């Protein structure tokens, strides 16, 4: 799960802030969805 956030941070440093905020509330659920949209 930590790797997913790292990937987003690597691609977009601005989205990391939003990802961290959601990650704390929704855990990796939102993170996985975001990666799916960004990558796929």
Please give the alpha-carbon distance between the first and last residues.
17 Å
Spatial extent as radius of gyration: 9 Å
Give the oligomeric state of the chains in this entry, treating copies of one chain as homo and distinct chains as hetero.
single chain
Give start-end ranges of low-pLDDT stretches: none
Main sheet properties = none
Number of helices: 3
Q: Kindly state the percentage of residues in helix.
A: over 70%
Order of secondary-structure elements: HHH
Descriptive account of the structure:
With 40 residues, this protein is an all-alpha fold. It has one domain. Helices cover 85% and strands 0% of the residues. The protein has three helices and no strands. The longest helix has 12 residues. The N and C termini lie far apart (17 Å). The model has no long low-confidence stretch (mean pLDDT 55).
Key descriptive features of the protein:
40 residues, globular
Secondary structure layout plus pairing:
Blueprint (H helix, E strand, L loop, with lengths): L1 H10 L3 H12 L1 H12 L1
Helix pairs in contact: 1-2, 1-3, 2-3
């Amino acid at each position: 799960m930590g790797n997913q956030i790292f990937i987003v941070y690597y691609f977009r440093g601005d989205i990391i802030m939003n990802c961290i905020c959601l990650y704390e509330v929704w855990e990796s659920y939102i993170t996985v969805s975001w990666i799916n949209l960004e990558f796929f």
